[in-house]
Design goal:
This protein has helices at 11-20, 54-70, 87-96, 104-110, 133-146, 189-195, 262-273, 320-336, 344-350, and strands spanning 2-7, 26-29, 46-47, 73-75, 78-82, 100-102, 121-125, 129-131, 150-152, 157-162, 167-171, 174-183, 204-213, 226-229, 235-239, 242-246, 251-252, 285-293, 300-304, 307-314. The protein is of the alpha+beta class. The strands form three sheets. Strands 5, 6, 7, 13, 14, 15, 16, 17 and 18 form a nine-stranded mixed beta sheet that branches. Helix 2 packs across helix 8 (320-336).
């Protein structure tokens, strides 16, 4: 019998699995052909510790030393843009993100394609950094295997049954038995809970689309910060010598392998175009991912109140990578009976018991 069976091979599942492998036997199941296939493979991959509500910020800050010690971060910076039409949203972002206001000329120095005629205010946070997500996922998988854990891809779970000694789980042609089950399935987390005979938590996946365009006007943009419209109406981020532009939409959608809507992308690119002087070129690629939120927009980490051997690691929303190390340690601590490193008040705000 397996001690801990993890369903889901994204950042949530891998970080939990690597930490749990220190406490017993671990098997990780991923339905797709590769790890990090869905949301984890389509993330903007930014570490911005001021992004999110209080429990999210606590997890992000607790993850910071892991990113620094592991060398996973590289300089990026975060630039907030304000126009005459979004003063209230700009003020809200300025307060929530703890940015420092800079002059319009300083903002132009960081992103020279900004339209000086439209930009009236700007703020910057140097602490925002890129995360090497591929290496982070690979390192968690290596740590898991080094501790004797197993990873199985193309292993879609189709049935879960509670037994006197734990759980019976059917995945493909396999029938597995485990003492504890970790639900790290992102958009499908409520579906897995229902399969296990437990109440869903009201998790909602939202689509977010992205388009990659050539470097605007031939500029060398690799060192530009990520830059946002107030209220996160859109954002743009350098990527592989080009620029990713997202409409930053939140369209509720059923769990699926998401794809971008052409009209949504066009609207987002138009909002971006209004703030820059270089014309938008035809996208070189486009894609979409799902960001799954709990009703209160905090992660859901810990044992189900009705069945403690069913452990939630869900509701990562747009914070999965930046909270990943601390979230994985918290899930492992709660699943193995250890004392969590985080303040008990934060742990309570992350617990699925808050919805009971």
């Amino acid at each position: 019998m397996i001690d801990f069976l993890i369903i889901g091979g994204g950042i949530a599942g891998l970080s939990a699995a690597a930490n749990l492998s220190k406490h017993g036997s671990v098997r990780l199941l991923e339905a797709e052909e590769a790890l990090g296939y869905h949301a984890s493979g389509r993330s903007a991959a930014l570490y911005e510790p001021n992004y999110g509500n209080a429990p999210v910020k606590a997890l992000s800050r607790a993850s910071g030393p892991d990113f620094i010690d592991g060398g996973y971060l590289s300089a990026r910076g975060f630039l907030l843009l304000g126009t005459a039409d979004d003063r209230e949203l700009y003020e809200q972002d300025l307060q929530n993100l703890t940015c420092e206001e800079i002059s319009v000329q300083e903002a132009l120095g960081k992103v020279p394609i900004l339209d000086e005629a439209k930009l009236i205010r700007a703020a910057y946070h140097e602490g925002a950094q890129d995360i090497d997500t591929d290496r982070l996922l690979q390192d968690y998988a290596k740590a898991l295997r080094k501790q004797g854990g197993e990873v199985s891809t193309r292993s879609k779970v189709t049935a879960i049954t509670r037994t006197a000694h734990g759980w019976d789980v059917t995945a493909g042609e396999e029938r597995l038995r485990c003492k504890a089950l970790v639900n790290a399935t992102g958009p499908w987390a409520d579906e897995i809970a229902k399969m296990a005979g437990l109440a869903p938590l009201g998790l909602q996946p939202y689509r977010r689309s992205m388009a990659r365009i050539a470097a605007p006007g031939g500029h060398e943009c690799a060192n530009w910060p990520i830059f946002f419209g107030a209220g996160e109406a859109w954002y743009a981020k350098p990527d592989a010598g080009q620029l990713i532009v997202s409409p930053a939409e939140e369209d509720p959608i059923a769990p699926m392998d998401a794809w971008p809507e052409d009209m949504v992308l066009a609207e987002g690119l138009a909002r971006y175009q209004e703030m820059v002087t270089e014309p938008v070129t035809r996208p070189t690629a486009s894609w979409a991912g799902l960001r799954t939120f709990a009703p209160d927009r905090a992660l859901v980490l810990g044992p189900d109140p009705a069945e403690p051997s069913f452990i939630w690691s869900a509701g990562q929303g747009g914070y999965g990578f930046q909270t990943g190390p601390a979230a994985g340690r918290l899930v492992a601590a709660l699943a193995s009976g250890e004392c969590p490193e985080l303040d008990p008040k934060i742990v309570a705000k992350l617990s699925p018991a808050r919805f009971a």
